[in-house]
Amino acid sequence: MVRLVRETWALVEPNAGRVAEFFYATLFSIAPATRELFPINMQIQRSRLLRALVHVVQMVDRPDDLIPFLRQLGRDHRKFGVVAGHYEAVGMALLAGVKQYAGRAWTDEVERAWAEAYTIMARAMLESASADEGPAWWNGTVVDRQRLDRSLSIVRVQPDHPLPYHPGQYVSVEVPQRPRMWRYLTPATAPRDDGLLEFHVRAVDGGWVSRSIVATAQPGEQWRMGPPMGRLRVDRNAGRDVLMIAGGTGVAPMRAIIEHLAKWGENPRVQLFYGGRTRADLYDLEHLQQITSTNPWLTVVPVLEAETRIAAVERGTLADVVTRYGAWSDHDVLVSGSPPMVRSTVSRMLVAGTSLDRITYDPFTVD
Question: In the CATH scheme, what is the homologous superfamily, with its name and number, of domain 138-225?
Answer without folding.
Answer: Translation factors (2.40.30.10)
